[in-house]
Amino acid sequence: MVGPLPCGKLQLCRGVGVKAAASRRAAARRAAKTAAALGLAVFSCAAVALTAQETAGPPRALVVSSTLERIVAPPAGDTAASARIAPGTVASPADQLILTVRFTNAGDDVIDSIRITSPVPADVQYVPHSASGPGSEVLFSVDSGRSFGRPDELTLAAPDGGVRDADASDYTHVRWVLRAPLDAGATGIARFRAVPR
Q1: CA nearest 61: which of 20, 113, 111, 128?
Q2: Three-state SS across the chain?
Q3: Which range marks the domain in which residue 132 is found?
Q4: I want to staple 13 with a disulfide (CB 3.0 to 4.6 A). Which of 29, 32, 53, 121 is the partner?
Q5: What is the distance between the alpha carbons of residues 95 and 123, in angstroms, rounded to a whole number?
Q6: CA 24 to chain centre
Q7: Measured between alpha carbons, how far is residue 32 from residues 76, 147, 187 in Å?
Q8: Is residue 3 part of a domain?
Q9: 5 assigned to some structural domain
């Protein structure tokens, strides 16, 4: 069954601090409880945090949903069939998964400076170069969402005490920074592929 995954709380850039951090922790706890209740076997819950700078409160007109789907290969020997997206939450190690975040400005005003951040579930691994979001810059985190950068900017401590370049298996979060405002009534989609660890 494919359904919406619990989404994180809408947050303001100006709201970053103790109160926002507490809200993020509470949202993560709720998401974990929901995922456990649903019995998601392979996947952790992907929470989504959105940020809009210009409003005094969370952009109430922004409607957000996320889904996790499995890519299913055609039956062996069927050359006419193509791969399809299948509803289902049980994946084999050979499956590829797609995490999709859909967001819609359901209000009458333009929403500016939107950042969408999705954790990479702990039991899956990001597929290199698979994140897409039209009109957005894609950034990654290797430190549980504390900082973000382009792949060539990310490093981690090496076991020998040195520093090594991060690779896609190290990513903990994906962030899409929208380059343009989201017009009233507009819808956007951001997604990435993953494989079970």
Answers
A1: 111
A2: CCCCCCCCCEECHHHCCHHHHHHHHHHHHHHHHHHHHHCCCCCCCCCCEEECCCCCCCCCCEEEEEEEEEEECCCCCCCCCCCEEECCCCCCCCCEEEEEEEEEECCCCCECCCEEEEECCCCEEECCCCCECCCEEEEEECCCCCCCECHHHCEEECCCCCEEECCHHHCCEEEEEECCCECCCCEEEEEEEEEEC
A3: 10-196
A4: 53
A5: 13
A6: 15
A7: 37, 22, 27
A8: no
A9: no
**CA-CA distance, 128 to 151, in Å (whole number)?**
10
Question: Tokens 């997206």 identify what position?
Answer: 85
Say how far apart CA 189 and CA 169 lie, in whole Å: 23
Question: What is the CB neighbour count within 10 angstroms for residue 75?
Answer: 7
| 189 belongs to a structural domain | yes
Q: 165: which strand partners?
A: 155
Q: How many independent structural domains does the chain possess?
A: 1
* pTM recorded for the entire structure: 0.66
pLDDT by residue, tens only, the chain of 197 residues: 333 333 332 332 323 333 334 444 454 444 444 333 333 323 333 344 554 444 444 557 888 888 888 887 666 666 554 455 555 555 666 678 999 999 999 999 999 989 899 999 988 999 999 999 989 999 999 999 999 999 999 999 999 999 999 999 999 999 999 999 999 999 999 999 999 88
CATH number at residue 179: 2.60.40
Residue 65 lies inside a defined structural domain of this protein: yes
